[in-house]
């Protein structure tokens, strides 16, 4: 084993040093050569090659790194092996591992792999090992269309759906009975148009366009409750079911709030720059119209406060925990779906707590206390208190765990952003329009 | 299924007959059976099982009618053709037939599969197919041809020259569909042929925004390299005036720069308009949803933009930190490199790099790196406070990294050195050994800077040797004591005594330091330590590790004088106790920017195969005229209406068929027939390229002006050179044209050069020399002057678009709409006529409608509309006002007053309304051209 490792090291050196810098060596270049799907436990359950086949033994380097890293989140997304580069993402307890042999922008591959995972999610409802195994053929057909010779070809969900129909229960029953297929009979015209995100010939009896303005508060609060850092990130998720080729214009009451924006490719930059309106021909179905960041000058309203006291005793292997949550700046709305997550130090054995509202669980393997509070009642503040027991003999944990908060406030965009109107051009009918606002906690963390 | 699995599990059991059932199914004439068989075969391939023995049975179905069967057969074929070359040839004729199909999608798909079959014998067939497809009517087929080029190249590199010809041809393509794919082919086949880009440079810049995301990344990366070979370094002047950020350049480089700067000083730096074009056209892509595109633009700005402009990328990069952790990982690596060169740009976003306990360790460590790079005198206290919370983390690797970060802050920022040192000393009593060990290592480095002040810390650390087990930390302590034994004369020999006792059980690095300590003590305090040293040296003499034996022998020769020992022993003290420079703690990301940012090579800090070096800026700019294109080219290239840049909403593009008939102007074809005001639209597309000029571009504008003047003069000298004049205008970006296929006319637009110049000039008129202007002015005033056969004013057949000035609800019943009537405004020819329509939908009369309190940008003028005495309920009235926008798109703000209320309103003109369009048929144009009568506003 040692010898072979040495050989490998040597070959790495040889590989890099044998390449003169002045002479251009032509390497068969490609963006992505192969893709392997690897389960959480290290089982390679799907492979696809867009060029010559690369043996799956190349994954051993990755599996080794995975073993070393322990936590899958800590596996470096880019690994170098003697002859290949491995670029991977971790999504839905799966590793998407791509193999390439030459220089390629790593983000290019990472972004693409996430797009693949998004597509699976879109098609099968989730991106999991079971579902991918169940739909291997569809997965293969999708991968075939998404990449040509390692270069992305069709990544728009609308175009793909024209070529390969997503499976539904009804269709799979019909297909088994009749031998029908899930490959579209029509040819993908969307690919030809310069509005490639929208398929041609869309028809609905009810024409509707819904927009969800979803804002997330990212915050770090310190022990005393002072804000260390807070910002608002928002997205506008759209569900547009409109006949034909509608051309929409969405305008805001207060577009100046938006500090940094990124758009779906359908949005016309020019109109945004000059008038601060979103002008676009929408894709069909669900899509993310824009993401934005609210300018940091505006003070961020923090909807809840957390009074907490977590302490570990110096002697005796136990500690105390006492957490109370109350409303702060809720803008007159109710805080719902309140959830508190506390990752405990590894030496914690068990907890014995009582919650005045909701239920709590303690996961013995991950040592995470999860308190599902539900609705926050300002009259009767929820409280969780009790004792923590620690492994006997283990030293007192050095630090207190941080508290992560999840919550939801309906009908409110915490930044105050408001959609003023939606206009449609290009089609004659009157669509049904709707806008919904939600505020959630993003990465909302209280240090203790 | 079971049978199938059994066959897979023990292939040796039934070698010749396995998959018989599948073969049977494939041979049947039922599509459903074939499909089922193919699905099972593809599932085998997906699991990595060998299905190659089915090749003959599968390949027979290549012409199957069922589209799904056919697709799965293609999947199989591409996977196994390489192994079964002879059999694969059976399928070729099917694809050759497909290449001739009238349907573009079938042609494309045939080419795609054909080019994916890696069988050398069909190289000539592939070459022919690619060449034909490259001149196909359909842009989609041409795109597929571009994709096929690298496939053929990797199969047979001998074809390079022929393939370059195809690439050259496809690079000239004007459709967004092809652009990304052909540049990808260029990058893989002939990235060194930068000369092929010249003629296509401007077109690529202009098309960029409408190219699909993946193509954008490839084009931007390629253009970054291109720009580095063709333009001058925009930052060269500034380095000469002593920027604080580039301190660490070596002398030689500095001299070189100074020389270049001196040269530049003689000839002030003017940014090439093409350089500017690239920066301007890539900037909006920072708003892309695709992280790879954002990163590509960010690296382009980092490598190409003037220092003052690079800042815009920070916000976009910080935004990416919200994305998946893999994206964060890559972005943070690049940010870490950028923060070393351009710290200021990320300082406002300091807090965005704060670490959450839920971040993965590798992200935490990268964020820490960025925070450390961003630390300076003003923010260090905030950062240190933040670091204090990190030290308490459960994640020990992260804590160790934090301690090192504190060490780096302390060495870089003198003011906080003592604070940091005290903080670190406190950590020495931490319960976690790793934390203590890391602190020791860092303290050692800090103490080296001023040891005399801190003998108490050294004493404290000496005590730690009893408890601390981490080898690196023990070694560090021993080195410290040895180095500064004069500060701790009493303790040092005692430490050596203890170490001598445990010598045999120590790790190698610790043993080496024990030897070191012994040698130094022997030299300074031989009385007390002579025997101990001898003892240690003897132990080392028989150590298993030859490094240690070696070191012992070496030290003995140096310090223990014998008759044999050479002259060196005299200098032993100098050798061992020389003043050692304090170590420099620097970022591992220093100097990584010689790799193109965003690249794999940058991430790995090693050159990856196929990496193209980022060239150094040239000393003097190569000839910019290589990028000029002949007029025919530029008419289409520059004037192409793009989707994302168009301002007004408009009908969608025609999708099917239209591309076939009019492929070259594919993206323009939709605009002609739609009723939404195509004139203004096309003008807006022009606006993209010119009116977006930024403030700091005075220089560029001046040169443009000069060029224009020169051009006019030239054209005046010889009337026949009018066409040349137009060409020049095109190439310089003054003139834009849009083709309306339905009308078979070209529509020329003349765009103002600057948005809002000094008050007294209308720039275009002033720029044109007088004689030409007077010639032209007559033409521009009204259609009566032009012969009716020649011109039809746009307003004749285009519906005027009206805008809302005051909404019924805000106006309490009074609503006002306005439109640009596109008629000359008689009181003042320089003013644009604005026709306003007042509607009173309230229940009472509105009186004394007039305007007041007009607020304008300098140079703009307004002629009020005549006061409307009374507007009865339910009535409508119109009035005309004139505004001289002074060729800018600034809004005219004023108050609209009634007898009871005042409303603040503003009118902002679309650029198109500032110009007067003229339509000419080809013949008429030629006639006009002959007479040199060219109409401008």
From TrEMBL, chain A:
It comes from Xiphophorus maculatus. PROSITE patterns: CLAT_ADAPTOR_M_1 (PS00990), CLAT_ADAPTOR_M_2 (PS00991), MHD (PS51072). The keyword RNA-binding does not apply. Residues 206-447 form the MHD domain. This is AP-3 complex subunit mu-1. Belongs to the adaptor complexes medium subunit family. It is a peripheral membrane protein. The keyword Amino-acid biosynthesis does not apply. Its main location: Golgi.
From TrEMBL, chain B:
Pfam families: Adaptin_N, AP3B1_C. Residues 663-680 have a biased composition (Low complexity). Residues 681-698 have a biased composition (Acidic residues). It is found in: Endomembrane system. InterPro entries: AP3_beta, AP3B_C, AP_beta, ARM-like, ARM-type_fold, Clathrin/coatomer_adapt-like_N, Clathrin_app_Ig-like_sf. It is a peripheral membrane protein. Coiled coil: none annotated. The keyword Protein transport applies. Its main location: membrane. GO terms for biological process: intracellular protein transport; vesicle-mediated transport. Residues 638-716 are annotated as: Disordered. GO terms for cellular component: AP-3 adaptor complex; endomembrane system. Keywords: Membrane, Protein transport, Transport. Residues 741-890 form the AP-3 complex subunit beta C-terminal domain. It comes from the Eukaryota. Belongs to the adaptor complexes large subunit family. PANTHER family: ADAPTOR COMPLEX SUBUNIT BETA FAMILY MEMBER. This is AP-3 complex subunit beta. The lineage of its organism: Eukaryota, Metazoa, Chordata, Craniata, Vertebrata.
């Amino acid at each position: 084993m040692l010898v072979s490792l040495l050989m490998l090291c040597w070959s790495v050196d040889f590989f890099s040093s044998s390449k003169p810098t002045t002479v251009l060596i032509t390497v068969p270049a490609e963006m992505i050569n192969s893709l392997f799907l690897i389960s959480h436990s290290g089982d390679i359950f799907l492979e696809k090659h867009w060029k010559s086949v690369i043996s799956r033994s190349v994954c051993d380097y990755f599996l080794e790194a995975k073993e070393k890293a322990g936590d899958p989140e800590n596996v470096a997304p880019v690994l170098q092996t003697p002859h290949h580069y491995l670029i991977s993402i971790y999504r839905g307890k799966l590793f998407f591992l791509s193999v390439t042999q030459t220089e390629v922008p790593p983000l290019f591959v990472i972004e693409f792999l996430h797009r693949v995972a998004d597509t699976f999610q879109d098609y099968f409802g989730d991106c999991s090992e079971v579902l991918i195994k169940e739909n291997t053929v569809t997965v293969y057909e999708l991968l075939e269309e998404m990449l040509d010779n390692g270069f992305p070809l069709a990544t728009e969900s609308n175009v793909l759906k024209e070529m390969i129909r997503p499976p539904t229960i009804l269709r799979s029953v019909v297909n088994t009975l009749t031998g029908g297929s899930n490959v579209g009979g029509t040819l993908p015209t969307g690919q030809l148009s310069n509005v490639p995100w929208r398929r041609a010939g869309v028809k609905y009896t009810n024409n509707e366009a819904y927009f969800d303005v979803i804002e997330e508060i990212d915050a770090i609060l310190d022990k005393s409750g002072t804000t260390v850092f807070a910002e608002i990130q928002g997205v506008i998720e759209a569900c547009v079911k409109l006949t034909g080729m509608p051309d929409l214009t969405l305008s805001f009451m207060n577009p100046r709030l938006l500090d940094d924006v990124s758009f779906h490719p359908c949005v016309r930059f020019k109109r945004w720059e000059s008038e601060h309106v979103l002008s676009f021909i929408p894709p069909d179905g669900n899509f993310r119209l824009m993401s934005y960041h609210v300018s940091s000058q505006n003070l961020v309203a923090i909807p809840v406060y957390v009074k907490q006291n977590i302490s570990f005793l110096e002697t005796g292997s136990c500690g105390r925990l006492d957490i109370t949550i109350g409303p702060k700046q809720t803008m007159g709305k109710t805080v719902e779906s309140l959830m508190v997550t506390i990752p405990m130090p590894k030496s914690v054995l068990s907890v014995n707590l009582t919650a005045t509202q909701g239920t709590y669980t303690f996961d013995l393997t991950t040592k995470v206390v999860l308190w599902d509070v539900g609705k926050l009642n300002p009259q009767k503040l929820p409280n969780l208190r009790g004792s923590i027991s620690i492994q006997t003999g283990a030293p007192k944990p050095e630090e207190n765990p941080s508290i992560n908060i999840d919550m939801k406030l309906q009908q409110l965009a915490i930044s105050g952003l408001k959609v003023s109107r939606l206009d449609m051009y290009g089609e004659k009918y009157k669509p049904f329009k709707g806008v919904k606002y939600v505020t959630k906690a993003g990465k909302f963390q209280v240090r203790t | 299924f079971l049978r199938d699995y059994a066959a897979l599990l023990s292939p040796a059991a039934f070698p010749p007959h396995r998959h018989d059932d599948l073969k049977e199914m494939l041979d049947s004439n039922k599509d459903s059976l074939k499909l089922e068989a193919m699905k099972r075969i593809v599932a085998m391939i997906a699991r990595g099982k060998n299905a190659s023995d089915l090749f003959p049975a599968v390949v027979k179905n290549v012409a199957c009618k069922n589209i799904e069967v056919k697709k799965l057969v293609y999947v199989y074929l591409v996977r196994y053709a390489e192994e079964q070359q002879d059999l694969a040839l059976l399928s070729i004729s099917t694809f050759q037939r497909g290449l001739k199909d009238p349907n573009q999608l079938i042609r494309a798909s045939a080419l795609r599969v054909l080019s994916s079959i890696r069988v050398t014998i069909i190289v000539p067939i592939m070459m022919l197919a690619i060449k034909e497809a490259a001149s196909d009517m359909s842009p989609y087929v041409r795109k597929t041809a571009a994709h096929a080029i690298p496939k053929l190249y990797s199969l047979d590199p001998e074809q390079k020259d022929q393939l370059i010809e195809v690439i050259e041809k496809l690079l000239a393509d004007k459709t967004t569909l092809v652009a990304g794919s052909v540049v990808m082919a260029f990058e893989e086949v002939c990235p060194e042929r930068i000369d092929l880009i010249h003629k296509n440079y401007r077109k690529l810049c202009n098309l960029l925004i409408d190219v699909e995301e993946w193509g954008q990344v490839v084009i931007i990366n390629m253009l970054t390299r291109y720009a580095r070979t063709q333009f001058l370094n925009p930052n060269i002047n500034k380095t000469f005036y002593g920027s604080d950020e580039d301190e660490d350049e070596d002398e030689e480089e500095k001299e070189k720069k100074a020389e270049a700067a001196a040269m530049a000083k003689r000839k002030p730096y003017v940014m090439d308009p093409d350089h500017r074009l690239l920066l301007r056209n890539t900037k909006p892509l920072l708003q892309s949803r695709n992280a790879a595109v954002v990163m590509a633009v960010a690296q382009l700005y980092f490598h190409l933009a003037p220092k003052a402009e690079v800042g815009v990328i920070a916000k976009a990069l910080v935004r990416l930190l919200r994305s998946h952790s893999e994206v964060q990982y890559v972005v943070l690596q690049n940010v870490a490199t950028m923060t070393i060169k351009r710290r200021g740009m990320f300082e406002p976003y300091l807090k965005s790099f704060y670490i959450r306990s839920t971040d993965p360790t590798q992200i935490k460590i990268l964020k820490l790196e960025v925070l450390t790079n961003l630390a300076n005198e003003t923010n260090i206290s905030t950062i240190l406070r933040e670091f204090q919370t990190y030290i308490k983390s459960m994640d020990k690797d992260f804590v160790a990294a934090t301690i090192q970060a504190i060490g780096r802050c302390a060495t870089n920022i003198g003011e906080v050195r003592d604070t940091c040192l005290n903080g670190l000393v406190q950590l020495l009593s931490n319960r976690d050994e790793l934390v203590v060990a890391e602190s020791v290592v860092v303290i050692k480095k800090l103490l080296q800077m001023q040891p005399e002040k801190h003998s108490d810390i050294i004493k404290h650390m000496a005590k730690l040797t009893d408890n601390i087990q981490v080898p690196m930390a023990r070694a560090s302590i021993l080195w410290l004591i040895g180095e500064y034994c004069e500060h701790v004369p009493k303790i040092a020999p005692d430490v050596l005594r203890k170490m001598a006792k445990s010598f045999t059980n120590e790790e190698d690095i610790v043993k080496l330091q024990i030897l070191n300590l012994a040698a130094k003590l022997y030299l300074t305090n031989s009385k007390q330590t002579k025997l101990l040293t001898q003892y240690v040296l003897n132990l080392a003499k028989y150590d298993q590790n030859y490094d240690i034996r070696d070191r012992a022998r070496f030290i003995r020769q140096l310090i223990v004088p014998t008759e044999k020992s050479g002259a060196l022993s005299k200098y032993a003290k100098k050798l061992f106790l020389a003043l050692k420079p304090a170590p420099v703690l620097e970022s591992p990301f220093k100097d990584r920017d010689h790799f193109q940012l965003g690249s794999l090579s940058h991430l790995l800090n090693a050159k990856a195969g196929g990496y193209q070096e980022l060239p150094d800026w040239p000393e003097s700019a190569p000839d910019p005229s290589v990028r000029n294109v002949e007029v025919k080219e530029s008419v289409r290239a520059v004037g192409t209406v793009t989707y994302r840049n168009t301002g007004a909403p408009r009908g969608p593009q025609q999708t099917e068929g239209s591309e076939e008939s009019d492929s070259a102007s594919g993206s323009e074809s939709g605009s002609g027939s739609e009723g939404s005001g195509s004139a203004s639209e096309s003008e807006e597309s022009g606006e993209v390229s010119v009116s977006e000029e930024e403030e700091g571009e005075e220089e560029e504008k001046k040169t443009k002006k000069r060029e224009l003047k020169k051009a006019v003069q030239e054209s005046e000298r010889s009337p026949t050179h009018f066409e040349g004049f137009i060409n020049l205008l095109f190439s310089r970006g003054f003139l834009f044209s849009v083709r309306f296929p339905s009308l078979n006319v070209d529509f020329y637009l003349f765009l103002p050069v600057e948005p809002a110049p000094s008050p007294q000039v209308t720039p275009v008129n002033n720029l044109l020399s007088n004689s030409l202007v007077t010639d032209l002015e007559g033409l521009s005033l009204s259609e009566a002057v032009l012969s009716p056969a020649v011109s039809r004013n746009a307003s004749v057949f285009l519906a005027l678009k009206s805008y809302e000035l005051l909404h019924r609800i805000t106006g309490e019943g009074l609503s006002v709409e306005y439109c640009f009537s596109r008629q000359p405004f008689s009181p003042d020819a320089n003013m644009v006529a604005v026709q306003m329509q007042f509607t009173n939908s309230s229940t009472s009369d509105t009186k004394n409608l007039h305007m007041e309190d007009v607020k304008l940008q300098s140079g703009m003028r307004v002629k009020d509309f005549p006061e409307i005495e009374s507007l009865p309920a339910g009535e409508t009235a119109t009035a005309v006002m004139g505004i001289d926008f002074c060729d800018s798109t600034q809004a005219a703000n004023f108050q609209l007053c009634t007898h009871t209320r005042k409303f603040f309103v503003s009118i902002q003109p679309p650029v198109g309304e500032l110009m007067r369009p003229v339509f000419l048929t080809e013949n008429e144009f030629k006639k006009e051209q002959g007479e040199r009568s060219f109409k401008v506003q």
